[in-house]
Amino acid sequence: MLLHMVYDCISILTTDSALHQWMMQFVVHHHKPAMKKNNFREMADRAIVESLRVIESKDWKIEMKGENGVVYSKNLPNIGKVFKYEGIVEIPAEKLNNKLFYNVEKCHEWNNSIEKANVIESIDKNTNVVHFISRNRFFVSSRDFVHLRVWKKKADAFVHSSFSISHPRVPPANYIRAEHRFCTYVMRPIRGEPTKTHLTWLMQVSLKVSFTINQNSLFWDGVPQNITDHAVTYGMIEHLLDIKSSPID
């Protein structure tokens, strides 16, 4: 019997079970009709509100300290372990937001975790739906995922939030469909230092193990938490290095 094991990264970030149930109305159920643009906007607005609520909560524990930032974590009821990066990026806040949001179809040129990205639908100038295909990274084999993405200005900060949805133009096909229910960046200018940004990045990752036995795929949710912790922590640091090391338009 041939046993092949790979890891499936699925980001899940909600702040309570009610929000989780609300969002799951729109995720994975591919038989449902396409949502209207107002539905997309409503989901995006709520994602930002809930992300900021988690970011501003207390009792974070340090996972890793780096030269320019710290990765924290905490456990939320009904949610699991959530991760937060806080640090300084030597890129102006608006340019950093533009790098993350616009020209997304060229992000594979600087983001080593992405093989391909296509804008599936533009909702408005600040909101869109993007289909990503990831590269094989670490012990994670290639996946695809469909994100509803939005950015908004909150006081002096740029807030960019994205999470998985289903979309009729990109049903699951040749890849295992990963799900990111939240991935939120808060980019705040540093007073007196216009070339620098205080970045807060919030996410949660739940690792699945995928086994292929006699051409049948099985999934198990029992990945040890320490493996998940290391994968998420180092994955965040790698992504930040990609951001910092690539040119800014």
Summary tags:
single chain, 249 residues, alpha+beta, three-stranded antiparallel sheet, 4 helices, 13 strands, disordered N terminus, Steroidogenic acute regulatory protein, mitochondrial, StAR-like
Largest sheet, in brief, is:
10 strands, mixed
Determine the fraction of residues in helical runs and give it as a percent range: 10-25%
- How many helices in DSSP terms? 4
Terminal Cα span: 52 Å
Protein name: Steroidogenic acute regulatory protein, mitochondrial
GO molecular function, one term: lipid binding
GO cellular component, one term: endoplasmic reticulum membrane
Domain START: 56-249
How are the secondary structure elements laid out?
Layout (H helix, E strand, L loop, with lengths): L3 E8 L5 H8 L12 H19 L5 E5 L3 E8 L3 E10 L3 H9 L12 E11 L2 E8 L8 E12 L2 E8 L11 E2 L5 E8 L2 E11 L1 E9 L2 E5 L4 H21 L4
Parallel strand pairs: 7-9
Antiparallel strand pairs: 1-12, 2-3, 3-4, 4-11, 5-6, 6-7, 7-8, 8-10, 10-11, 12-13
How is this structure best summarized?
The chain has 249 residues and is α+β, with helices and mostly antiparallel strands.
Give an account of the 3D structure:
The chain is of the alpha+beta class and 249 residues long. The protein has helices at 17-24, 37-55, 93-101, 225-245; strands at 4-11, 61-65, 69-76, 80-89, 114-124, 127-134, 143-154, 157-164, 176-177, 183-190, 193-203, 205-213, 216-220. The strands form two sheets. Strands 2, 3, 4, 5, 6, 7, 8, 9, 10 and 11 form a ten-stranded mixed beta sheet that branches. The chain starts with a strand and ends with a helix. Mean pLDDT is 79; it is low at 1-32 and 211-223.
